[in-house]
Each structure stands twice: as structure tokens, then as C-alpha cells.
């Protein structure tokens, strides 16, 4: 159900986008749930059923590496073929129009890349689960090859250099990627509109970015299914279905239509450029 309040909030978001000089998005699992990618923190998810394997254990034990890879491929089978959703498409339009300079994401599903946003404008705080890399020499390894090798040898994969091959994600106990964190900080400090989308804003240090943006003078918008701990800091909060809320943003060649998804224009005076 789309309430009057929700419609006016979308109009307000479109207005903020039309007025801003540089927007940055920060995305979490909620933007990908309509794409069939499970929210790992939701009740019943495998993420909750299995105790996460800490990075140190992954490094120390071949059995742990094998188990980590088995879990990884089991999860991949669940969301194989996931395609970008309406939220991803909206952000792609905003980036393509030049209004949005970067998308900082907690997601590892690669759907922002798949939506057409250039790599240079995506900052992955938790890495990327769509490929693997060698922890020693950094060589990229494709998952299909890793899986074939693992299944034929019944042993965790190794790089040609002898190094351990790991999914290119950040595991529990693994340091946050320094370059990504620096890029995210730079993008956050450079924006005047920061839009957090589909994140519970609970996981640190990632969740510190919305607050940093706000403290630096940017307008803060939070778009999420549920309330977040930062809602009272935000200039605008939109709660509801994320695909519905973002669907119309950035249509019309970069002008910010606030039309509802059935095409009815809303308050065009406020929202056209
Ligand atoms: Zn290597």
C-alpha cells in the first residue's frame, strides 16, 4: 500500500536529488532482496544457522577452508542468476546522469556492476562474492574453475603460486579493505546528499559513513524496510518496499520525475530541474 505520506516522501527525495550537487548512495542487503539474494542477517538464513568461520580459522585449517567453500557454493546456488532490481536500476540512472558520483555498498553480490555502473564508481566495503583471489599474490580466480578444482580434488583450492585462494569477500576477523574504506570516506566527505538504502546501519565501521556525511554538512536520507538507529539524524526517512520507493528516480533522462509507478505525475513544479 502506498500511503500519502510515502508519496510525499518520494517527492521530497526527488526534490533533494534535483537540488544537490553530488549525491552518494550507500547500499545494504535490502536493495537486493527483491532480486532473490537472501539477507544473510534475516531469521532462518544460512548465515544465522552456521556459525561464521573466522578468517584466522580459514587460514589455519584446510578443513575450515573446505567447509567455507562448500557453504559459499551452496549459497551461490541459491542466488545464481540474480538480476539487478528496481533500486539498482534507479541508482544506475542517477550515476549515468552525473548526479550521483559513487555507490558505497556492503553487498557482495555484484549487482551494482551488473546494473551497468562502472567499477570506478562502486566501492565495495565487504568485497565481492562473484570471484575469488589469491591471498598471497592477488591473482583473480574465477569461481567456476575454483569449484571444478575443489570438487575434483576434494581439497580447498590453491593458487599456482602456492597461496590460499579465497572468495574476494571480507570475512569475520579480516581487516576492512583499506583502499575501499579510504575511497568511501573520500566519497562521503565530497557529497552534499547521502542516501543510505536497504541497510540496517548496524554493522560498523560501515555504518559510520552516513553519520560522517551528516556531520560534514550533507543532507542524509535513509531508505529502508524498517527503522534504523540513525533515523533521528536523517533529514528524510522513507520506510517501505525499496524497489517501490526508488523505482521512478532518475527517469526522463536525468530529470527527476516524481511520478508514481502507475505514471501519475506528482508535484512536478517542485521536482523538475
Ligand atoms: Zn597466488
What does this structure look like?
This protein has 273 residues and is of the alpha/beta class. The chain is built from 11 helices and 9 strands. The strands form 2 sheets. A 6-stranded parallel beta sheet has the order 3-2-1-7-8-9, with helices on both faces. A 3-stranded antiparallel beta sheet has the order 5-4-6. α8 runs parallel beside α9. The longest helix is centred in the N-terminal third of the chain and has 18 residues. The protein binds zinc ion.
Overview in brief:
The chain has 273 residues and is α/β, with parallel strands linked by helices.
CATH structural architecture of the largest domain: 3-Layer(aba) Sandwich
Q: CATH first level of the largest domain: which class?
A: Alpha Beta
Distance between the termini: 29 Å
Structure summary, number of beta strands = 9
User: Could you say what the CATH topology of the largest domain is called?
Assistant: Rossmann fold
Class based on secondary structure composition and strand pairing: alpha/beta
